[in-house]
Amino acid sequence: MLDTLISSKTRLKLLIKFFLFDGNRGYLRNMEKEFHGSTNAIRMELNRFTEAGLLTSEYEGRKRFYQANRKHPLYEDLKRIVRKTVGIDQIVERITSQIGQLEAAWIIGDFAKGNDAEVIELALVGEQLDVPYINQLVAKAESLIDRKIMYQILTREQMDWFFKDKPAFLIWSDTYDTDNTN
Length: 182
What we know:
182 residues; alpha+beta; Arc Repressor Mutant, subunit A; Beta Polymerase, domain 2; 2 domains; four-stranded mixed sheet; three-stranded antiparallel sheet; globular
């Protein structure tokens, strides 16, 4: 959907990287690998976003790290637009309701790293979840967001153990303690 409004693929990737989840950061060489794009194109877009005040940057050693400027007046609006485009709002609305004893829903995989992907990976934390109903809800959400959703069901202990050192972003919680996660 955003690709019809924004023709630059690099610009779209940067919007997703920095505005999908709070706290995503990146530096030029790493984004070159993530995006499989040219350093020059990425640098030009980073400069445009920084000049517009949408991104801030700081040096750590010789690396210049970029992140979204949360104080920018458009920050929350851009975050909502990117989340709607990716389909996070539909996942929360469709998949987290009435599926059993769900404690939390996490985005994992490429999207948790701030990278666009055709597949949204989801970790559902809970017990006695209604798998046939989840499958129905996933199918409905996939048709609405035009992306594939892969999910796995984990206990709280499995989530804490499997994703201890991996990116995972909480998108829904029923009093889940987020102090132990990334």
